[in-house]
Amino acid sequence: MPKVLVERDGAVRTVTLNRPEKRNALDHEMLDELEAAFPPQPPGEERVAVLRAAGPVFCAGMDLAQRSENLGRPTPIVAALRAIESFPLPVVAVVRGHAIAGGNEIALHCDFVAASTQARFGMSLAQVGLAPNWFLAKKIMEKGGPVAAREMLLLGDPLPARRMYDLGMIARVAEPEELEAEATKLVDRLATNAPLAVRIMKRTLVRLMDFRDAVPHDDLDDEVRRVSASDDAREGIAARLARRAPAFRGT
User: Fold this and answer.
1) Who has the most CB within 10 Å: 65, 100, 142, 244?
2) Does residue 144 sit in helix, strand or coil?
3) pLDDT one-digit tens code per residue, 166-180
4) What are the b/e assignments for 188-214, b being 16+ CB within 10 Å?
């Protein structure tokens, strides 16, 4: 069974994270499938993409069991996020349950997020001794600004959907029973706009944010990798898997 499902219905491409038994945690195979679900040249009849998830959790982030075996190595999630962000068509994330760490990044790399009031969004990396690289951190800053970025990254506690909406980080929030109708209105509206105009506007918006990559940051990413290979990171992941409080030592 594929870990990412792709369906096409006329103008709408629907991509579904399909690992509900693992809370849609991202392993390398799943990330490869997610990247492939957003090709650089979709069929001409498509107008919009919808990203959703099977099961009650949108995405719990990277598979910690696999992550613990690859500490200190670059995260493979960036290629999938780049594919979503640069996809020529608008991408709407429909988030019913929690979107944590990598799941939060997936949602925020979409053009629009429609979320249930029961959903929560978070970057819990500081709570397990990890840190986001430049590409991941800049999206939090872009979406929420410096205050929201500090709240999300330094505290690490998940934010309710309504708080995300108030911060301007997501586009729509609705009660669980109204979410599908709200998302459908958004998707239908996007699908009726002029496709050539929408494509060039999306390219323009993405490029307007690319300037941040020109800021020197190799030293920061090197430090992120050192942090990810630290004793604290090993302890944090082990503690999270064992469902106990971590004992960080700053080493």
Assistant:
1) 100
2) helix
3) 999 999 999 999 999
4) eebbeeebeebeeebeeeeeeeeeeee
